[in-house]
Design brief:
This protein has 156 residues and is an alpha+beta fold. The chain starts with a helix and ends with a strand. The longest helix is centred in the first third of the chain and has 21 residues, at 2-22. The protein is globular, with a radius of gyration of 16 Å. The protein is 18% helix and 54% strand. It has two helices and eight strands. It has an eight-stranded antiparallel barrel with strand order 1-2-3-4-5-6-7-8.
Length: 156
């Protein structure tokens, strides 16, 4: 398990360095969230997920969401390493964004069961909105449930 955690940590560090050296501030902002979530099914089965998420506004119409982490289910651990490219449209006069299109790119090492990951990531959300809670921290929410709190990462 410690080897898998080390791999996830190394991949997260590489992603942050890549973002730091290849992004410019005028292309938007980026923020990171580290979360641990779990779900207990009626059968008593427990599923938990440790995840680092990078949320990058590439421009006003495109958002990249990078998930890296580990899913534990039925005593097994699965690596999560996937990127979503979202085509978005901002609702006029608000901080609400409508997701027009979603493209998934999974690495060959990502072996996590899609159904469970999608359920735990609230992958069926078609809208989200952003609220600034501090100068360098945002709450990114679905229209019903909070999705994540993230803090700024360098984009230039």
């Amino acid at each position: 398990m410690s080897v898998l955690f080390s791999i996830v940590l190394a991949l997260s560090a590489i992603a942050l360095l890549w973002i730091y050296f290849t992004r410019t501030q005028d292309e938007g902002f980026g923020c990171q969230s580290d979360t641990i979530s779990w779900k207990t099914y009626s059968t008593g089965e427990l599923t938990d997920m440790s995840l680092t998420t990078l949320f990058l506004f590439n421009n006003k119409d495109v958002v990249t969401v990078i998930h890296k982490g580990v899913l534990k289910k039925e005593g097994k651990s699965y690596l999560i390493d996937r990127n979503y490219t979202l085509s978005v449209e901002k609702v006029d006069g608000s901080n609400i964004f409508y997701i027009k299109d979603k493209k998934l790119n999974k690495s060959k090492d990502d072996a996590a069961p899609d159904g469970v990951v999608n359920e735990m990531l609230l992958d069926n959300i078609n809208f989200f909105y952003i609220t600034r809670v501090k100068p360098h921290a945002w709450l990114i929410k679905g229209l019903v449930l909070p999705v994540m709190m993230c803090v700024a990462v360098p984009t230039s």
